[in-house]
Give the backbone structure.
Amino acid sequence: MTAMTESDPITLEIIQNSLQAISDEMFAAFRKTAMSAIIYEVLDMGTAITDAEGNLASSGAGIPAFVGVLDKAVKRIIELNGEPGEIARGDIFATNDPFYGGVTHLNDVVLAMPVFAGDELVAWTANIAHWNDVGGMVPGSISNEAHEIFQEGLRLPGVKLIAGGVPIKSVMEIMKCNSRLPDFLQGDMWAGIAAARVGERRILDLVGKYGLATFVAALSHFMDYGEQVARRALEGLPKGTFSLEEEQDSGAVYRVTVEITDDEFIVDLRDNPDQDYGPNNASRDGSLVAAQMVFMNIMGSHGSANGGHFRPLTLLTRPGSVFDPNPPAAFAVYYEVEIRLYDLIWRCLAPYLGERLPSGSFASICGTFIGGPHPDTGRHFTIVEPQVGGWGASGAADGNSAMFSGFHGDTFNCPAEVAETRYGLYVDRLALNDAPGGEGEHRGGKGIVVEYRVRSNGCFFTCAYTRNKHKPWALDGGREGSPNYAEVVRTDGTVEEFAVVTALEVNEGDVIRIHTGHGGGYGDPKLRPREQVLEDLRNGFTTDEQARAVYGLEEPAA
């Protein structure tokens, strides 16, 4: 078998595709057995397989930013449990703490399982998902007012959850006891365990079929191949040093410098503000994920990423900064910091890459958290909803409407029927946003308006949206997109507007109305072909007034 490895690329390709299929099967197992709609409907999750050292070998479906977490989490688990005998067959480890391999925030729990062929550790299976409540100072465990990680919930520092196939009951009970939704936590935890075990069985089948030496050689071969693909793509990029600074809605200024050479892609984040006093921080590994995602977007690779793809990428950070904070920094809304970084690197490079990168998108997760007593059962519920919005236009086409951000990726919105059945809300409206913005020769995609009507008293609403004050950016003479924001319409008709709020009390009859932004336009709007402007009018994407004033349409629609 070892000799065949050098001369049988077909076998190596079969093994690599089998690993991808295993990752996808893990994903399906997790989805089908999870209790929370944020997992089984929204797919706020990810799965992956790494080699024995924690290098990404194959990624499953789900959020791209989550898949990028898993190799880093496994490496930290190995580091924390590196003494002989501490990692054994049948073990499963859990981490959610950014200082111990969790990468993101405490709601996102990683489960990782070592895979042994005989006495040799050959791979890891891993998954991550958002758990609706892990304790902390507010329901849902997301607070814009947290100042240190101790306020955000239960910390799992790369600890063993299952030893030799036997659950560690005390650890599981501690986890349940710290959640306002213990039944859901337990159900989602066992779904993750099942997914990891499915992956282990399939990998051992693969090793048994092709032999250990061939399996290990296939992992190494395809990481080397991933590096070759990335370096070839790097050759086609403009060379030089590119810099950008951008003010954020908070007033902070984020800066990035990207240096592209013949064999390196260097992202320098050292000249950035000190870590945030609140939860607006991204761990260094999380910042690396943002850089890796832009790198893959630019590389144009449509296949599954592996550790080899990122060998040309170097990230430079400053410890104690917002992109590399020191303990006990808080991380609850890390996702808005990372998508700001992702969009910053994107914006820095877009003017130099032709049509590879479009204008700015709504570029916010727009995470929406609503909970309280269920009007029918009295039990506590929490709904967690990322929102869809408009993507930026490019030199070739209009932007897409009502899509998740590039950072959030391959997920879905929760169907209204499920939301109304599982949670104490009515979904009164879901429509494209009619606000102006994003006009251009190619126009930005449309955001949405969604309305949740609260059905019981004593509920709460939390959100943290960016791209509120500073709208999605345009290219080549296009117009900016529109902002992300939320309104709370009280039963007496008063309207309160928010971009950031924590545990705001909402009561029966109040309506939470979410507005997500349009993407930025591309090109002078007056260059948009007349027939396309007329089509926009017929579809309600623009108005007669906008068609005349912005697009220069001289005649009314027929």
User: Anything to note?
Assistant: The longest strand covers residues 120-130. The chain is about 30% helix and 20% strand. The chain has two domains: 2-227, 358-527.
